[in-house]
Amino acid sequence: MPEQRFEEYLFTALDGFPCSLWRLIKEEASPEGPVLLVHGAGVSGNIFNPPTPRNIIDALSIAGFDVWLENWRGSIACPANQWDLDQAAENDHPVAVREVCRLTGAANLKAIIHCQGSTSFMISAVKGLVPQVTTVVTNAVSLHPVVPWFSRVKLEGALPLIQSVTPFLNPRWGDEPDDAVARWLKRWVDLTHWEKDTEVGKFVSFTYGSGHPALWELANLSRVVMDWIKTEFGKVPVSFFEHIRKCVAAGQLVSADDSVRYADQTPKTAARFVFLTGKKNRCFLHASQEKSFEYFNLRRPGFHRLYEYERYSHLDIFLGEHASRDIFRDIIRELQQ
Prior knowledge:
Helices cover 39% and strands 17% of the residues. The chain has 337 residues and is of the alpha/beta class. It folds into two domains: 6-145 and 262-336, Alpha/Beta hydrolase fold, catalytic domain (Rossmann fold, 3-Layer(aba) Sandwich), CATH 3.40.50.1820; 149-240, no CATH class. Helix 2 (85-104) packs across helix 3 (115-126) and helix 4 packs antiparallel against helix 8. It comes from Dinghuibacter silviterrae.
């Protein structure tokens, strides 16, 4: 595919935090209208832009969509900060959606949301903060985070220790541990992760899940993509892990102050939700998306969809060498309905 170029639009979240939008530059018309892609924690919008034969940005552009990438406060393209899901849901995503509509003149848009971009965006949706969004394709986790048992052990047992020694974790420490804490954690990763991944890839698995690896099946990734990943991960704050710990313990998304259980409420959104999950996901188990699909399907039977992919995990849904053939067709078909 030809090299992609993006135009950057800066925006300020409701609490003053600096964020940005990247819009794919293209000469062809976009009759399908705007689609907003929302990344996970400790990466950036560029995580949707891997060097595969045809990535999701390519596929959406070819299908006639006006492609936008949001860099919310969990992005490594933003200043490092201690954030939680509520902050992103209340301050970042509503402004990003409004900005895309303003800049394009569109009355509404569609969204593809991943991991903690998905959990925070789902909070925005169920609180009625993004009414312009008509269709949401969500990958890996939505309202009901379900993790492997060892991830629960790490969240409950190891997190307090991590909080006492560092405000951030950074998978790049796999290649470049820059202080004593990073070097100690790197030694621990070396002892516990024996998979044939890169050093950064192993640190990603230590940080975000329980598998070997946790976020992808190595068989789905080319060597080029494995090497590319090494520069796509960065700092993620322990404040996020503290919030998701509470959510995992509750069996659903809850507010950071424990005052609101988001799946106990009637969702204030008319959007159609399409849930994607890899059956081999070792970050958030496929039960996460199954539970969220059931939650929405009970309220409007037959309106929403669930796709489960036997050979895929978490992030290889977008980074996989054959994801265009195996997954992107489903995404585009659902967005075009």
